[in-house]
Structure formats: C-alpha cells, structure tokens
Specification:
Blueprint: E1 16-19, H1 22-36, H2 43-54, H3 59-71, E2 74-81, E3 84-95, E4 98-106, H4 115-129, E5 134-140, H5 144-152, E6 156-166, E7 183-186, H6 192-202, H7 213-219, H8 223-231, E8 234-243, E9 246-256, E10 262-268, H9 277-292, E11 297-302, H10 306-314, E12 318-329
Parallel strand pairs: 4-5, 10-11
Antiparallel strand pairs: 1-2, 2-3, 3-4, 5-12, 6-11, 6-12, 7-8, 8-9, 9-10
Helix pairs in contact: 1-2
Amino acid sequence: MTGVDVFAPLRTVPDGMHAFLPWRDLTAVVGLLELGFGHDLDSRDRRWLSEMAASTSGPWGMLSRVFAVTDRGFKGYVWYADGRLVGNASLMHADADLWVIANVTTHPDYRRLGIARRLMGAALDAAHAAGARQVQLQVRNDNAAAQALYLDMGFWRMSTAATLRLTQVPTAPPSAPHAAGITLTALGRSDRHVARRLLGRAGDLDRGGPTALTVQAIERAGWLDVLDDWLEGKSRRAWCARADGDMRGLLALQTVRERGPHRIDVAVEPRWSGRVEPVLIDAALRALAPRHRGLEVEAEVETRRTAAIAAFRDAGFRLVRVLDRLALDLD
C-alpha cells in the first residue's frame, strides 16, 4: 500500500452514526454542506468549501487538516446510509465551558427519518462529557423545521442577529456625516475598565455565543494572544469613540492576511445610538482601504440594534442572512 492510499476513503462504511474522521469524511461532508446549505452560500462560501475539500489531497495536506481540527477542540458525527454520507453535525469548543454545534444537515433524500436528532443527541452527549455547561448553535430564523427540532430538544432562544457584508473595501470610503464633539482614539490598556463598563451597558458581555470582537479587544491583548492571531493570519485593532468626557462607543476590527472576510464589531452607549456608529464604521473602512481594498468585510449585528444596522447599510453593507442563536443549558 502506498503512502497516498493510507488516506483514501474507505470503500464501505456501515450504515448508521460514526464519529467524524477527517481523512474519511471531510470531502463528503463538504459536498453535503454544499447541498444542504446551497441556497445560503455565495461565491465566497463556495470557494471556502472547495478549498477545504482540496486540502484533503495528498498525505501532508490531510495530516495538516487532521491536526488542525483535533488541536482546536473539534468533534463531529456523521451518518452513513446505503454506502454514502447523508448526515453531519459538528461540535466545537468555543470558550470556557461553552461548546458550539454547527453544520447540522441531512441529505434531502433522508430527511424526516430522525437522523438529525440522533446526530444532535450524540453531539450533546459529547459536549457534556467534555465538561460543557452550555451548548449553542445558530439557525436561520426562517428555517421552521430546524427551529422546531432544536426547541423540542430543550434549546431556548438567546438572540437574533443580522449578518451584513460589504463586497469589497472601497478605495476611498465616503465620509460619515460629521458628528460634532466625537473623537476617536486607539484603545489603550488604561481604557479597558471603562470599555468593559461600556460593553456591559451595550449588552455585549451577556449577548451569548462565542465572545464578541469588542469583548476580545479588552480580553485578548497579551503577547500570547497576539502570537496566536499571527499564526492564524489575523490582526486586530480597536478604537474608542469619546464625547462629553466619556467613552461612548467601541470599535473592534479584525483583518486577515489572505482571503476575507475582515470583521467589524461595534458597541455603543445606548443613549448615543445612531450618532456614534457611522463614525466608527467610517474609521474601520478607512483603516482597511490602504492595504485591504478588494476584500470582503462582515459584521454581525443583533436585530434590536436598528441604528447600527442602518449605519452599516448606509456604508454599503448588504443583508446576507438573519440567524437566531439558541442555547441549551447542560448543568
């Protein structure tokens, strides 16, 4: 047997549920995700899936993929039927005692057979065994079948957020309307205590889900965090918006070295909502323009923050999807 043959998929896999094995299942899972979420994928998403599938070619590419998923607290379960992979549920360690379930999908020909429920059950058992106190997931707010399954399993709705995307950073972003009395400064170490109070008032500290970029801006500032970002091809910047002698808003920007999207997150003092967001978004786009024009930018904004959504749309962002974040408490 040659070295490459070692990484070839098994010719037959027994019907039923199995733990996800990258060398055996990844290519088929990518195909299933393209089929299951095809209506929700744009060209960038499809490119990412194609690159993921291509990374399985050759022993070294497959080894790197295996180590990448196992090293980051990644688990998963797949379902085989009639010799092919027809169901998937991924489980990822997100933060402290929180795990996230994602990529739950079943082949259209095998739906309504209880496969998704069985895969979800296995993922929840694995999360509990790993010490999780809570499991979260995101689901389109118009996906009635999936919503019904998750709510029946005990999940509760935490929040609803809109994903907004700017196709490319403009070479010369249009200036935001002048906001009298608002100044921007880089977030410094001495600002973190005040920034945390702002995030509490804005609701970012308890909005649920993997930690928001604005929260990461004050919690991931050590040299190990910087090194970790560098290894992942990321960099971060953060600015404070000040007015009347106090911090009124916080902007977090995460850029990537290669393919997008870059990510923007803003948090604003509720009483200043509508006045600060355009200034922060304008600052982020101007910071991106010199080196990162042509790449996509994304923001995830809770739907209750109507002023922030309006500011992003005024800056050229378009609505991609609306997702509900659901949670299940395990303790």
